[in-house]
Backbone:
């Protein structure tokens, strides 16, 4: 059985050994700011902030940016990446913030590791304003890439509790736990990589990530899904 301690140790080891190379390039995280239309003065919480690359993008836009993570190794790098952000060692299933405090929440490449996803979703609803928005990126279990990585390469370490699901399963989970789905985007990382290679490493604006481009395959076949959620009003 995977424990919270095992997950924490896995991320501590990963950040200690790989540092920022474990993550996407810092400029890519501006994509999520665009999806949420983050405004100056807004309050944003990044769940599983790691070294703070997304937090930096939030502070650049003038947001009050807060990050939480279970990894002390990840949090130790936030000061260098996002010196104007605030961070704390905290668990997604028990957020250390008051009700309706945040305008935006991001959870990128983290939700699939959470031990109690429904409890985490309830906590997200609790700390988000009624008109707030939440961005969660989750992996697709139907892609050949996921199947190859999990069954052949076996790189999805059980100690990190990493798992994937289908589009329909993720969608049903969010709807069942009190959210309305405002939009779902493709993960534009593959498009970004292609443009980065073609431009000789000069690809760095939101437009270059491929957002808004036409995809030949249906959304259900994206490597990952980016859900934009709104809390439904509690009755």
Residues:
């Amino acid at each position: 059985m995977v424990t919270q301690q095992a997950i924490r140790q896995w991320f501590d080891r990963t950040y200690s050994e790989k540092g920022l190379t474990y993550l996407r390039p810092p400029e890519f995280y501006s994509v999520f700011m665009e999806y949420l239309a983050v405004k100056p003065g807004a309050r944003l919480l990044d769940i599983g902030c790691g070294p703070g690359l997304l937090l930096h993008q939030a502070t650049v836009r003038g947001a009050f940016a807060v990050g939480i993570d279970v990894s002390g190794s990840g949090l130790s790098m936030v000061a260098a990446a996002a010196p104007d952000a605030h961070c704390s060692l905290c668990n997604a299933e028990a957020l250390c913030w008051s009700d309706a405090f945040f305008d935006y929440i991001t959870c990128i490449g983290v939700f699939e590791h959470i031990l109690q996803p429904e409890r985490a979703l309830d906590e997200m609803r609790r700390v988000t304003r009624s008109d707030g928005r939440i961005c969660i990126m989750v992996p697709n279990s139907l892609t050949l890439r996921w199947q190859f990585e999990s069954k052949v390469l076996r790189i999805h370490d059980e100690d990190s509790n990493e798992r994937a699901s289908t589009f329909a399963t993720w969608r049903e989970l969010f709807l069942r736990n009190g959210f309305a789905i405002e939009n779902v985007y493709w993960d534009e990382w593959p498009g970004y990589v292609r443009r980065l290679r073609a431009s000789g490493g000069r690809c760095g604006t939101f437009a270059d990530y491929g957002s808004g481009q036409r995809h030949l395959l249906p959304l259900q076949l994206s490597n990952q899904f980016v859900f934009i959620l709104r809390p439904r009003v509690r009755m």
Observations:
- The mean pLDDT is 88.
- The CA atoms of residues 139 and 219 lie 12 Å apart.
- The longest helix spans residues 4-18.
- The beta strands are 43-47, 64-69, 86-89, 102-108, 128-139, 179-186, 224-231.
